[in-house]
Amino acid sequence: MATKTTRNVSGKGSVRPLGSIKHNTGNDRIPKLPSFTKTVEKSKMENVGIHGNAMNVPPPKVREDIKPKTLSAKSDSSSSTKSVENMVDKKELQEAKAREKDLLKKIAELQKIIEELKEQITEKDQTISSLENKLKEQEQTYKDKLDEEKQLHSNTKNSLESLRKELEASKEENKRIAKRNEELLNKFKNEMDEKLKDITELKDKELALRDEKLNRLKKQMADALKGNSWERQQQLEELTKELARLQEECDTLRMKLKSFKSKGSCSNCSQLSLKNEELQKDNKEKEKLIKDLKGLLTKFQTQLKQQEQLMLLVEDSKGLKSTKLK
């Protein structure tokens, strides 16, 4: 245990308590205190290990009790011993004062660090409180958004379910309509096949009847043309000769009329004029008759050609039909 001692310092008579002072025996070393920078860094790394006004300092070493020295009987040895003790006490006192000064300086620095750390702790507490408030606000905001998203998800799910049901109903309706349309199409196809069959049969009958009529007509016209062609040719030749003769008479009468006109009028002029007009009229009628006969012959020939072409077409259609049926 440390003991309190009173000693005379520098030969003065005043007595001063020095507290716990360890005598330096020469073998002990003065402990080194850590530097200020290292102390601050260590305090930051340990998340501020100093709390309040308290300060953690290493405990002092246990001091061994100093045994009182026995004074010898000799006065010389006594005086020399006292002188040595006074020197040792003086040196220890100076060292103690220096250590005390250093310790006070370090204590002031540590107190300053403590105040700064307190301010930092206060700022950090305020920051933490602000962050906690923001965190609560964000948490509430995200919670509201989550509830809103859940509600939207529920609405979307309900809408999808409704659409799925409508889609299933539409599919069933489409199947029903497709089946009905297929039945109607088959029915219509059967009806059209029956109608086409009836029309084909009717067409075949009509074509057969038409072929028969055309063949009969063609035969009749061929017989008629064959029997009357020579007679008609004779008539045309006679009419042509008659027309030429009448033309000559008309020319002769015109010449006579011109000669009579140049010589003067006579009693027969009016009669000749009337006769000339009648001849011209007969000539025109005969020309018209010849023209009509020629037109009739041309018409008969054209009809025969058309009938032959029609017969060829009918024969071709029958050939195509028979090919399709095969």
TrEMBL record:
Basic and acidic residues compositional bias, start-end: 162-175
Compositional bias (Polar residues): 1-11
Ranges for region Disordered: 1-33, 45-95, 144-175
Domain of life, source organism: Eukaryota
Ranges of biased composition (kind: Low complexity): 69-83
Descriptive protein name: Uncharacterized protein
Organism this protein belongs to: Mytilus coruscus (Sea mussel)
